[in-house]
Design a protein that fits this description.
By secondary structure, the chain is α+β, with helices and mostly antiparallel strands. The protein is 42% helix and 27% strand. It contains five helices and six strands; from the N terminus they run ααααββββββα. β2 and β3 form a beta hairpin. α1 runs antiparallel to α3.
Length: 151
Amino acid sequence: MPHYFSTASTGAFLFAIPWTAFAIFWMFGASQSGSIAFTSFGIPFVLVGIGMLSSPFWTYRKSLKTIYVITDRRAITFDGGRSVTVRSYEPERLQNIFRKEKKDGSGDVIIAHKEWRDSDGDKQREELGFIRIKEPKKVEAMLKKLAEPKT
């Protein structure tokens, strides 16, 4: 079962609490001056705060549209949404997998990394694989068995 709070959504959610509270406080203070233009300047900040507060919900919805498959020939991930991203990993690509496990037994099995530069030129990195799953140790063993040379 997917979780609402992932590492990324928790950070955005926690940052959104003071952001949104300050934006609302600022709008309230600005409304006391009687200037509608000054007050309405805070609306985009409140909307951004609401968006950040709802990030756990969007992460949860995305995880409901994600499917992981292990066959006798490959591992496949289907990431749904408005479009579907399909990643196929043949046994040769499963040589450097690793597991990240939480205390509750859930976790991730990382197969690959995706790297790119954002609009500011900063290097970004995303871990690809079987993310936020119930039994990562079991899945890791299955993937390592798939990666073994066939005799």
